């Protein structure tokens, strides 16, 4: 389930909740009248496997344009994830007749086993983006994780590209050179135009717009 809220002109909140629950069940019966079951007078087994995964992500987004050329956006959020798995199985042999097929009718319990496993993870993350005239782009990101899978001495740590205990600042700088389209294809759709810009015979970019002309369409390479 995803919900978006518009808090202010430049601020929005996004909330996500997800739940995945699965129950897997199986059974097997070997009839005592068959070669596989004759030696033990029939064998029956059952298995059940429960799997549950819950995740929630809450993010706050902000964006603003200054003087028409400086575009700044920021994102901050938290995430929680929990996964559990539990299973049980059993088997028995020796049945009075072939009509009895469930393990409670078995004369001898052959095996019984069960297991449980699971983990939890909580995270906080943030990202800041800046671009100038859509030509220069700078991105800074950071993330902090805490997990039950970590050792007891380091349940919470800053996740970096080298997995060291230092804050990760990922900076990306991109320069995009603006070029004029040599040709524009604008097939009309129900919502407007789906425009494709071509430069030197190669398709560069497509987008949906209300109008589409060679002069108004922006292409980058």
Features:
eight-stranded antiparallel β-sheet; disordered C terminus; 221 residues; four-stranded antiparallel β-sheet; 1 helix; mainly beta; rod-shaped; 2 domains; 64% strand
What do you see in this structure?
There is one protein chain. The chain has 221 residues and is an all-beta fold. It has 2 domains: 2-176; 180-221. It has 1 helix and 14 strands. The chain has one helix at 35-38; strands spanning 2-6, 11-30, 43-66, 70-93, 108-132, 136-147, 156-158, 172-175, 178-179, 183-185, 188-189, 192-199, 202-209, 219-220. The strands form 3 sheets. Strands 1, 2, 3, 4, 5, 6, 7 and 8 form an 8-stranded antiparallel β-sheet that branches. The protein is rod-shaped. The relative contact order is 0.11.
Largest sheet report: 8 strands, antiparallel
The rounded Rg comes to 30 Å
Please state the average pLDDT score.
78
End-to-end distance:
37 Å
- Overall structural domain count: 2
Number of alpha- plus pi-helical segments:
1
Count of DSSP E strands? Answer: 14
Structural class: mainly beta
- The string of secondary-structure elements, in order, is EEHEEEEEEEEEEEE
- Provide the β-strand percentage band: over 45%
Q: Could you estimate the helical fraction of the residues in percent?
A: under 10%
- Specify the overall morphology: rod-shaped
Low-confidence stretches: 159-180, 199-205, 207-221
């Amino acid at each position: 389930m995803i919900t978006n809220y518009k808090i202010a002109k430049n601020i929005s909140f996004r909330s996500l909740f997800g739940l995945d629950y699965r129950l897997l069940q199986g059974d097997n019966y070997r009839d005592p009248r068959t070669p596989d079951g004759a030696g033990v007078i029939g064998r029956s087994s059952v298995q059940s496997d429960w799997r549950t995964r819950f995740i929630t992500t809450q993010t706050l987004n902000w964006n603003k344009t200054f003087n028409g050329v400086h575009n700044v956006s920021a994102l901050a959020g938290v995430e929680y994830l929990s996964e559990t798995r539990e299973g049980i199985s059993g088997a028995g042999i020796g049945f009075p007749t072939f009509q009895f097929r469930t393990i409670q009718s078995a004369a001898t319990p052959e095996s019984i086993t069960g297991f449980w496993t699971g983990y939890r993870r909580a995270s906080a993350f943030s990202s800041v983006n800046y671009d100038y005239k859509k030509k220069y782009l700078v991105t800074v990101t950071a993330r902090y994780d805490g997990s039950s899978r970590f050792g007891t001495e380091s349940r919470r740590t800053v996740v970096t590209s080298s997995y060291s205990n230092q804050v990760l600042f990922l900076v990306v700088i991109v320069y995009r050179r603006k070029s004029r389209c040599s040709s524009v294809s604008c097939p009309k759709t129900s919502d407007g135009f789906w425009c494709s810009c071509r430069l030197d015979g190669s398709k560069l970019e497509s987008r949906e717009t209300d109008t589409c002309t060679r002069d108004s369409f922006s292409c980058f390479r």
